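Task: sequence design from structure.
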């Protein structure tokens, strides 16, 4: 009977653990890599529309359709990432393989406020770095009261520090230790912190309940008989490493960064590189890539602001995107990024059928229809004849000539007769020029009359 109750107790315990484990697993955040594809598609479509292309332009859909195979082709050279039981390339490794390092040439935050930064190199490697963490130096120290003390004496090294913040005192002690040891390149140590002790390398700071040697304001500690400012190097949230694989860099991401919204600059760079590479492929029939006006991070921000639930996170970007899923093409860009993706993007205006391999269809007996006949093409002379023979009665028209004499007025002055004929001489000498000018003027007037009819 005791054995029966023991087995029953074990069974209940296992059942409770199983239920609690299942609930815990369901509570864990789940990566949704398709949200990265949605954001890329949304940025591309918004970018094409803002650049003056209509959504009903056949090249609009062709652009997305040609970019999708380009992304799928890059997957073959992208490094895989293993998280849990899934091993597959992720959007991060695809972005690295497609070469967004040529667009983002600096270490970029994975999220706008993330602690970790990545530099996408051109050799399929990553450099990682992190923002400095904040170490509190705000606690004041009152003479005779509680404080933290760090003391280290060995050879030529002598360290005695007192302050109100234990980790800050220990880190300052380690900085002084490096200086007195002749180390020119100081680094931030890994520190172990507890309520009574902080250890940073060989330096230990201990909590003292009473006996502070002096009163020092916030931001200072007691050193060499006076209060002075802290000068230690602030630790980084992520260690600086170079030449990492996507797996190594993903492993180093702080858990607090994983569920932050992905930096839109990364999405914009991914969209630009995919569009740029697709546009140079043979047979490309999409819109030309705007080399001088690429998609910007603000355009990605506009789409994610309209679709906050579909905005990708760092977890979505770094998680493996398995090719064996409900989608036959998980790298295909959806035509409608804000709706559920059930099928891969279609490829419009593309006929992949080879007629030579298709069976011949029997259309029945030959009706014997002859070739169509065409009318004789008229000659140039026949085409222009109606124009040349227009108004034949006016073909020989010639205006009548008029004869006239230039008037020469005269008048008497002081007993002499004066004749005014200088204008006649001027007109007679320039008669040919004036006739040509008037003929040209009348021709212009006639031309305007005819064209305005």
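Answer:
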């Amino acid at each position: 009977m005791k054995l029966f109750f023991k087995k029953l107790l074990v069974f209940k315990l296992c059942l409770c653990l199983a239920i609690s484990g299942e609930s815990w697993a369901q509570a864990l955040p789940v990566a949704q890599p398709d949200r990265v594809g949605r954001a890329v598609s949304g940025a591309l479509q918004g970018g094409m529309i803002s650049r003056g292309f209509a959504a009903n332009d056949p090249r609009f859909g062709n652009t997305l359709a040609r970019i999708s195979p380009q992304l799928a082709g890059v997957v073959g050279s992208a490094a895989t990432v293993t998280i849990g039981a899934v091993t597959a390339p992720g959007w991060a490794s695809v972005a690295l393989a497609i070469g967004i390092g040529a667009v983002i040439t600096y270490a970029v935050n994975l999220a706008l406020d993330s602690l970790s930064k990545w530099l996408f190199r051109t050799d399929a490697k990553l450099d990682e770095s992190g923002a400095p963490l904040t170490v509190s130096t705000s606690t004041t120290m009152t003479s005779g009261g509680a404080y933290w003390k760090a003391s280290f004496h060995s050879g030529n090294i002598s360290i005695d520090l007192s302050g109100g913040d234990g980790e800050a005192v220990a880190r300052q002690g380690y900085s002084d230790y490096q200086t007195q040891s002749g180390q020119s390149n100081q680094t931030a140590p890994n520190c172990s912190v507890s309520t009574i002790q902080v250890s940073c390398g060989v330096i230990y700071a201990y909590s003292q309940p009473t006996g502070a040697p002096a009163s020092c304001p916030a931001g200072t500690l007691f050193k060499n008989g006076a209060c002075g400012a802290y000068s230690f190097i602030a630790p980084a949230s992520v260690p600086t490493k170079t030449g990492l694989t996507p797996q190594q860099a993903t492993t180093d991401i702080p858990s607090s960064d994983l569920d932050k919204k992905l930096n839109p600059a990364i999405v914009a760079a991914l969209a630009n590189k995919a569009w740029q590479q697709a546009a140079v492929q043979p047979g490309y029939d999409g819109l030309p890539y705007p080399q001088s006006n690429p998609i910007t991070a603000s355009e990605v921000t506009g789409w994610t602001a309209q679709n906050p639930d579909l905005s990708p996170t760092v977890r979505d970007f770094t998680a493996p995107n398995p090719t064996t899923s409900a989608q036959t093409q998980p790298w295909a860009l959806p035509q409608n990024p804000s709706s559920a993706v059930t099928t891969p993007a279609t490829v419009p205006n593309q006929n992949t059928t080879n007629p030579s391999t298709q069976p011949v269809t029997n259309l029945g007996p030959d009706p014997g229809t002859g070739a169509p006949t065409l009318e004789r093409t008229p000659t140039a002379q026949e085409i222009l004849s109606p124009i040349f023979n227009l108004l034949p009665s006016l073909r020989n028209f010639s205006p009548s000539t008029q004869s006239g004499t230039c008037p020469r007025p005269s008048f008497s002055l002081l007993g002499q007769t004066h004749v005014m004929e200088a204008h006649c001489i001027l007109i007679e000498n320039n008669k040919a020029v004036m006739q040509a000018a008037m003929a040209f003027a009348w021709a212009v007037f006639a031309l305007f009359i005819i064209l305005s009819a």
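Residues 1-27, 340-352 have pLDDT under 50 and may be disordered.
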